[in-house]
Each structure stands twice: as structure tokens, then as C-alpha cells.
Amino acid sequence: MGNTRVGVTSGLLAYVFWGVLGIFWELLHAVPALDTLAYRIVWSLVTIFVVLLFQNSWRTVWQTIVTLTQNRKILWIMLSGLLITVNWYIYIYMVTHNQATEASLGYYMMPLMNVAIAVLFLHERLSPAKMIALLLVVIGVVLLTKQTGALPLSTLLMAASFCLYSLIKKQVPLPATISLALETLCVAPFAAIYLLLSPHILTQNGPTVTGLIIASGAVTIVPLALFAVATKNTQFMTLGFIQYLNPTMQLLVAVFVLHEPLSWHKIVVFVFIWAGIAVFVLESVYQYRRLSQPHDALRQSR
């Protein structure tokens, strides 16, 4: 019971943290999005270095690199580093360019896009309920495309990059800090080279912005650490419900804090997305209860 409480609390804190993170990146709107991304990568690596130094885990990092190289899985880690970097950049760009509402839409779409990826890459069968859920999401995307006159590529790419990132994480499971250290190590040299060539200077926007840039490493690591605790101590079904807290808070932040307009066109799109999520969640609850019944009967018989 104690571990479950810790897990749920950690999950709630992680998703709340991610939900309000748009405010943090908006405070850095004066910094070009690509520079913000590069700073985030570099300072994340510095933060991870301190954490691993405190944990005395650098030997484990090196052993993991050797093992992954021997197993020819190091390329998957490099790809995951690239995918999470793409996800970070798109999100930072959207939030700092008055597109936080569209960003929250992308995170709503992620669970259902995970289903699509499972069908395409893992060859899982699609239940009728999931087909309906995906159809509703597709209708929402089509409506958004018709209203804006263009396919919402940023929203779709942000969702797809994180879904593919999650897929790789399942194929190559590693502890959170070790995994993030390896992924960051893969992209940090490119970020450092970019910052050396960029005309932007760390301190040019004043001490407040400079402090926020330095804090971006901790801002990245803290929710990931909380999420790692949650995944170890919480049932998958529980996390499945909690995950919708993130885009819901993002939407609320976009409308009430960042003051982005929420037109009725967007509301219609969200209605279709929410309907798809409702079908997805209801079917997940039904499947979970059906699978848990034999276990409950077995306990009672004992």
C-alpha cells in the first residue's frame, strides 16, 4: 500500500510538472527555440553528470555502453536520443510561438497513436473499440486540417516522435538516469557545437533568463525521475488514467495563463479527440476488469 501511494504521488507530481512546463518555456521566448533546445540538452547532461556522480553510477554507464555495443543495440539508443530531441524542439517551438493549445492536442493524441504504432510495428490486433477511437481521432485531425488549411504536422510529429521514443524504450529497457544519460550523451556534442556557432550568448537576455536556462537541466530531469518512481510502484492502468492530467493542464495553461484563444473550431476538434479517448479508456477499463476477475476468483477460493 505504501509503495502504491508513493507511486501514484510520484506519477501525479510528474504529470503536473509536465503540465505546467509550458509556462517555463514561455519565459524563455526571447531565446531562439533551437538555442533553448541546445541549452536544455547541455544543462541536462550537466545535471545528469552530478546525479550519477552522487549515485556513483558512472561505472554502470560505461558497462551499459559496452553491453549495448556488443548487442548492437547502441544504435537504438542513438535513435531514441534523436527522437526525444525532436520532441523537445517541437514542443518548445510551439509553446513559444502561441501554439500551446495545439501542443496539448498532440499529447492527447499520443495514447491512441501508441495503439496505431503497436498495430504497425508490433502487429497487434485492433479491437472494434480501438478502431472507433482511432477513427474519431482521425476525424478530429481532418477537421483541424480543414480549418487551418494545412495538415497539423507539428502536432502529429510531436506525438509520433514521443510514441516511437516510447517504443524504443520498451525494446531496450534501462534505468531512467542511465537511459537519459546515454541519450543525452548522443546528442550533446551536436548541441555544444551549435551553441559555439550560434550568435546567441548565454547571458545576453539578463540574469533571470540566464538562471532559467541553467535550470532547464533540472527541470528536465526532475519529472523524469518522478515518472521512473511511478512506473516501478504503480499499476499500468493507473498510470494510463493519470497521463491525461498532462495535456489537460497544458490546455488550461494555454487558455488561462498564456491567454491563447480557444475558438469553437478547436473546441470541435477537441470534442472528437476526447470522444476517442473516452472510448479508449472505457475499453481499457473493461479489459482490465475482465482480466482481473480470474485472479479475484482464485484469491477467494484460497
UniProtKB/TrEMBL annotation:
Topology relative to the membrane: Multi-pass membrane protein
Keyword terms: Cell membrane, Membrane, Transmembrane, Transmembrane helix, Transport
Gene3D superfamilies from the UniProt entry: 1.10.3730.20
Pfam families documented for this protein: EamA
Main location: membrane
Membrane-spanning parts: 12-31, 37-54, 74-93, 105-122, 129-145, 151-168, 180-197, 209-229, 236-258, 264-282
Subcellular location: Cell membrane
One Gene Ontology cellular component: plasma membrane
Boundaries of every EamA domain copy: 7-145
NCBIfam families linked to this entry: rarD
Protein family per UniProt: Belongs to the EamA transporter family.
Protein's name in the database: EamA family transporter RarD
Name of the encoding gene: rarD
